[in-house]
Structures are given as C-alpha cells and as structure tokens.
C-alpha cells in the first residue's frame, strides 16, 4: 500500500468519526477498512455533513452511522462526473477523469450526490418504491356547484390538492372556470416553482429559464390568465354537446385571493406555501433524481407532499426575477392588463394588480438561488436539522452571507476544523 493510499484510509476513518479536516490538510494514515475507497464526492460530502451538523447541533454532534454508510456508498445520479479518485492516491493516467482534490469540487456535484440521498428518503417516506400516488376521492354527486380552477400553476394545483384532501370536488359542468392570476413577476416565479416540484428531469435552472423568455418573446401559459382562459374555453367548446357553454361570462379571473373562498363556496383556504429560493432550486435537483426512479405522477406527489412539507416556511428570500428583467416584466404586465380588458372576462380584484411596478419589484425580499445555500439546505435536510435556525429568520440574509464567506475560506485555505 502506497503512502497516499494509507493517508486516504486515515482520512476516511477521521471522517467516519465526525472529523472535518480537509484532504489537503490531512496527514494521518490507517490500514484499509474496506475493499475500495469511496469517491472524492462521497468523502467531501461526508466532511461537509460533519461540518454542517456541528454548526447546527453543537461540536459533539455527528451523523448517524446509517447515514454515513449511505453517503459513502451512494453513486451520483444522472449525467455528470462519475466517482472520482482522490488526488495523491492514484496517478493521473492522462485519460478519463483526473484524480480530484475534494475541496475544489464544484458545489453542484455535491448537491447532485445529496439529491440522490434525499430522493431515497422521499421514496421511503412515501411508502415504498412501487407504490403509486394516492388517488383522488371517489367520484360522488356534487353537493354544490363549484367551478374548475386553473391559472397560476403553483397556487392552482396546491389549492386543488388541499380541497380534494377535504373531500371537496371542483369542476361542476355548469359552474364555469376560475382562473387565478397575480402580478407577472409572481406568476413567473410560480410557473418555474411548479416545474421544479413536478418530479420531472432535465429542467434548466431558474436564471437560464427566466432570461430566455424576453429573448423568445414568450410567457409561460400559467403566467397569462387571459390567454389561458381563452384556451380552456376553446377546448370546452369543442366537446360534443357543450358548444358555447364557457363564454366570457362563465370565466372569472381572480386577482384577489381573499375572494376565492366565496367563489369556490368553501369556508376558508390554506395560505400558499412560502418556499425560499434555495429550496426551490434544491427541489429541481431532487425532482431530476426522482425522475430516474419513480413514475412522474409518483414523483410529483412526493415533491408536493413530503418534500414541500419540509421546506415550507424555511428562512430565506423568495425566488425573484433578476433586476435586469424588471422593465421587460413591467411592459409585459401592461400588455396583459390591456389583453384582459379586451377579452371581457369578469375580474375579481383590482386589474391594476396585474401590472408590476418597478419600485415594488426592486423592494421585494427576493433573490436567485445561491449554490452555497442550496448545498447547506441539502445537508441540513439529510441530518434533519433544516429547522434549526428558523428562529433566526430576520437575520437570515446576514447568516447566509457569513456562511458564504465561511465556506469560501474553508475552500481556499484548506484549514482544519
């Protein structure tokens, strides 16, 4: 056994014992404890897991042995780098992937491995790999004439799920359609959030997704209430025996959420979930992993059920439209308002709510996902400490900045902790 291999086995033993020393700073040695060494991604993820748990639960905290074994034996899913050898243990062969310094691995590589572990947790929490998503309540006679609900894809789907869980049925044939709307910036972030929690794979990240909209001069269907209402009305009119039953007077655009209970004939509705930007990005990564393991309907149920319950209300700024797109959002929202007025649909709420004001956009507590925050959240969810700092929510932005500076210092100096 070479000196490099002995050093690597010593580092593995150190990490199993809850250690946080980086690979460049490690100097100990040990005998082999298994047939093969784990990859650089697994070892670095375990080190960061130890570091995160110490910060959240105290210097004596360490991950459970079962979690440690899972981290060391799980392979990164999907496309990306395979398991990498440690630099200094094996020589660079000149072909394939070169041995890696774990402290220099891109954070998305670590999140990719963490997402595989979180996906396994979701499948286990949801009742097993082969179980399908729960079915909706059995069809029964409509007690009340409640309209179908469409529009903002994130809020509309969660509203339907909530009411179905109560046994409330929507979509009476004679009750028309309610289309949920909001200011355009909110509908854009909701559209992407719905995609991130859909259990689908190959979804581009938020910055690339939202920045291609002005380039292609388009809006997501869920972010265009009048256009969506027209499409739904046309589809309904094409059904045999139902021509003309969904005209403008049967479609209501709802911009004020406080008016929804009365329109849907229910006593109250739960508030929409509040999911920080980092959690939405992590949901995108976990969804992509679930897409490789379970059918899409099952993945959608797991993401909008158990996963959403864990990240709802966590501290951190919400997802926001980049500042350079604010003027484009304002122009599009004014165009939307004119289109809604021309369509003639009844509007519940102030139509001015559709227009995105530049001052209000700039003043929102919103941000793009941050790789440091996404990795930190993934680690906390693996150890079950994601709620450890909820009480510090007013100072979360400062905590996030301090964590980013701390993480950068750790990577650049290779210091021991």
TrEMBL record:
Region listing for Disordered, in residue ranges: 127-147, 385-417
Comp. bias intervals (Basic and acidic residues): 386-417
Highest taxon in the source lineage: Bacteria
Compositionally biased region (Basic residues): 138-147
Record protein name field: Uncharacterized protein
